[in-house]
Amino acid sequence: MKPISPRWCVLIPCLNEEAAIGRVVASVLALNVPVIVIDDGSDDRTPQIVGGLPVTLLRHPVRRGKGEALRNGFREALRQGFDAVVTMDGDGQHLASDVPRIVAAAQRYPDHIVIGARLLEREQQPKGRRRANAVADWGISWGCGLPVADTQSGQRWYPRAALELVDLPAENFVFEAAILIAACREKGLGVVSVPIASRYQGEFRLSHFSPVRDVARITTYTIGRVMHYGGMLASYRRSHEALPTVIDDEGLLGVEAGEPARLIR
After folding, report:
1. Which one of 7, 127, 128, 216 has the minimum C-beta count within 10 Å?
2. How sure is the predictor about 141, in pLDDT bands with cuts at 50, 70 and 90?
3. d(CA 255, CA 232)
4. Cβ distance 150 to 260 under 8 Å?
5. pLDDT in tens, 178-234
6. Distance (Å, rounded) from C-alpha 113 to C-alpha 158?
């Protein structure tokens, strides 16, 4: 008997994204999938723009951080009976056209989180941001006990087992790291990635992510988790002696890309 495909939606947390949010949501709706948008206390036209579209809109009266936006989005997705969500940012850096590849990878690896890893056009990444992401990848992979490509990407497939971790005590950008770590350590989920482009140029607003402040928060949290789970040396070996699994059916990285990833084609 063919397995039943999970029922999924796209989840978009946003804050002051009036320049892009209409276009982003419309591109996702064109995929004919349900959309949940969580507005984290925007003081521009973001909620008005989204309110005119056929989506579920949740609004925070004041800013509560990306972690709380995702948390409330997860709860709403579970309430509506979805089995999984694809998360993506509202500023246009994530494309709806990458979603089908992420979903296809999730169908191929049903007990995994799938990350849209920014492995293409990496020259667009500011050097400081690239270094911060590398530090986060090194530490969060250790926390997960397995190698993960681009732990800071917000375009992800979360299966239901990950959504059930909604009450993890972590806030802001730490929440996404906490979900990865707990999903691997406590739910036994794996992590695979598909390559997407790095998009830092153009009309994007300044990121809400602070390479210094938020990486420090993530690092402190991750160290605590590594110590909590124990087996620090074994976890380090599992996470750093192997390479991340990246599904590249289209050959987007190419044989000369030189990326630190084990390609599956």
Report:
1. 127
2. very high
3. 34
4. no
5. 999 999 999 999 999 999 998 765 555 556 666 667 778 888 999 999 999 999 999
6. 5
Which amino acid is it at 246?
V
Joined together, the tokens standing for residue 42 give 């925007």
Residues 226, 73, 172, 167, CA torsion sign:
negative
Helix (H, G, I), strand (E, B) or coil at 56: strand
Q: Are 9 and 35 in contact (CB under 8 A)?
A: yes
d(CA 219, CA 94): 25
Is residue 133 within 8 Å of 97, Cβ to Cβ?
no
Q: What per-residue string of b and e applies to 176-190 under the rule 16 or more CB within 10 Å gives b? A: bbbbbbbbbbebebb
Q: Domains, the chain, ranges and CATH?
A: 8-249 (3.90.550.10)
Q: Which two tokens stand for residue 174?
A: 């730490």
Q: Tell me how far apart the terminal alpha carbons of the chain are, to the nearest angstrom.
A: 26
Beta-sheet strands, E only, within 170-213: 190-197
Pairwise CA distance, residues 55 & 231, whole Å: 45
Q: Which of these, 11, 166, 174, lies nearest to 88 by C-alpha position?
A: 11
> β-pairing, 35-39 with 8-14?
parallel
User: Residues 33-66: pLDDT tens digits?
Assistant: 999 999 999 999 999 999 999 999 999 999 999 9
Partnered with residue 120 across adjacent β-strands are: 197
Distance CA 112, CA 245 (A): 11
Q: How do beta strands 56-59 and 35-39 pair?
A: parallel
CA distance 117 to 114: 9
- Rounded (5°) CA angle 125-238-74: 60
Output the CA torsion 262→113→168→13 (10° steps): 110
